[in-house]
């Protein structure tokens, strides 16, 4: 299994010149083999995007500087999934600090995150069980 965060970390290490292009490519090939069996869709898409850029480099369509720029751009793309669910809300007879629009039949949308949002190894948002906002 390979996670998006692992791929992003390896891209970052390559961009910081901590690993060579050959080392980065070897790692990706070894870890992305059969990833369709156990990795999530977003990780698969990111690996496929990286592999496409590496193929463009090896076929001469990108030089190494262009490859680095393409990989850097992949680091700035974060898939975000938001599930929209309607949750019944009980309305007190005399609200003290808020008002609820009665035209909505006492139902407000609640946004839930279905997967952690990460930047590198830092989690930016909570898992799906915690409401993000109303």
What does this structure look like?
The protein contains four helices and five strands, in the order ααααβββββ. Mean pLDDT is 74; it is low at 95-102, 104-113 and 126-134. A three-stranded antiparallel β-sheet has the order 1-2-5, with no helix packed on it. It folds into two domains: 4-75, no CATH class; 82-133, no CATH class. α1 (4-15) runs antiparallel to α4. The protein is an alpha+beta fold. It has helices spanning 4-15, 21-32, 41-58, 64-75, and strands at 82-88, 107-113, 118-119, 122-123, 131-133. It is globular and about 55 Å long. The relative contact order is 0.13. A hairpin with a 2-residue loop joins β3 and β4 (122-123).
Strand order of the largest sheet: 1-2-5
- The radius of gyration computed from the alpha-carbon positions, rounded to a whole number of angstroms, is 21 Å
Give the overall pLDDT as a whole number.
Answer: 74
Number of domains: 2
Strand content: 15-25%
Topology, pairings included?
Blueprint: H1 4-15, H2 21-32, H3 41-58, H4 64-75, E1 82-88, E2 107-113, E3 118-119, E4 122-123, E5 131-133
Antiparallel strand pairs: 1-2, 2-5, 3-4
Give keywords.
134 residues; alpha+beta; 2 domains; two-stranded antiparallel sheet; disordered C terminus
In short:
The protein has helices spanning 4-15, 21-32, 41-58, 64-75, and strands spanning 82-88, 107-113, 118-119, 122-123, 131-133.
């Amino acid at each position: 299994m390979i996670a998006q965060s692992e791929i992003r970390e390896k891209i970052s290490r390559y961009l910081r010149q901590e690993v060579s292009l050959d080392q980065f490519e070897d790692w990706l090939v070894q870890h992305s083999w059969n990833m369709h069996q156990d990795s999530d869709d977003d990780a698969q898409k990111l690996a496929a995007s990286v592999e496409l850029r590496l193929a463009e480099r090896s076929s001469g369509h990108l030089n190494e500087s262009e490859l680095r720029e393409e990989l850097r751009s992949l680091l700035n793309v974060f898939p975000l999934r938001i599930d929209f669910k309607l949750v019944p809300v009980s309305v007190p007879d005399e609200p003290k600090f808020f008002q609820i629009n009665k035209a909505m039949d006492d139902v407000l949308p609640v946004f839930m995150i279905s997967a952690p949002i990460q930047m590198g190894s830092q989690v930016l948002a909570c898992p799906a069980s915690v409401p993000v906002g109303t």
